[in-house]
Design goal:
The protein is 33% helix and 23% strand. The strands form 2 sheets. It has a 5-stranded parallel sheet, with helices on both faces. A 4-stranded antiparallel sheet has the order 2-1-4-5, with no helix packed on it. Strand 7, helix 7 and strand 8 form a beta-alpha-beta unit. With 221 residues, the protein is of the alpha/beta class. The longest helix has 16 residues.
Length: 221
């Protein structure tokens, strides 16, 4: 693959299905995701939106074809190299916050930075700042456990966790699906800011509000 300055991620000749008895989800599929851009990926249920995010998140591997992340081809990488690339360059946000119930809000945000080679303690000040940016009182929430905060607050904490490493790629799977209007607006405004700062933001969504705020829309139908 040839590196291009404004390209954050791409797939070429992608083939994928979950087992030999199932239909192909992707057949010789090409797609590009620009940096500094929010791309909304739409399509009916079962069209492959979440699977595409998992392929770009290096959680799945294509049957054949190539996936490049931040100009790094991944098809020949070892599992450990894929894990390091995922941990250092990719942030994930899901429909459910998926916070560790045994760890405080602050610890949930900083736990993933171990893949950068730095200590989570070095990110605590940044975590406090991110909580303030998404409208959460860090002095009140920082030491609380996920079970003691609302769903909308938990999703904003998960957003902070996804962005704490300033990832080059942000993958969001129905990130506003369970949120009220206010929390949805905060999540989208934060993702817009991440894209403006240089990230490639890819959102799988059915939400018309998210689609309207995206820079581009890709339909898998």
């Amino acid at each position: 693959m040839t590196a291009r300055a404004n390209l954050g991620a791409e797939a070429r000749g992608l083939w994928f299905r979950f087992d030999p008895a199932s239909d192909w989800l992707f057949e010789n599929f090409d797609i590009e995701f620009p940096a500094r851009c929010i791309t909304a990926v739409t399509g009916r249920s079962g069209s492959g939106k979440s699977t595409l995010l998992s392929l770009f998140g290096l959680l799945l591997s294509p049957i054949s074809g190539s996936v490049a992340i931040a100009d790094k081809p991944t098809e020949m990488m070892s599992d450990s190299s894929r894990s390091m690339l995922r941990g250092s360059h990719i942030g994930f946000l899901f429909q459910d916050a998926l916070l560790d119930p045994t760890r405080t809000v602050l610890d949930n945000i900083t736990e993933g930075v171990i893949f950068t080679g730095l200590s989570p303690r070095q990110f605590r000040a940044q975590a406090h700042e991110q909580l303030r940016e998404v409208g959460l009182d860090t002095n009140i929430l920082g030491k609380r456990l996920p079970a003691t905060i609302s769903g909308g607050q938990a999703q904003r904490v998960a957003l902070c966790r996804a962005l704490i490493k300033q990832p080059k790629i942000v993958l969001a799977d129905e990130p506003t699906g369970n949120l009220d209007v206010q929390s949805s607006d905060i999540v989208m405004a934060t993702l817009v800011k991440a894209a403006q700062s240089g990230a490639t933001v890819i959102i799988a969504t059915h939400d018309d509000t998210v689609i309207r705020r995206a820079d581009r829309v890709v339909s898998l139908d």
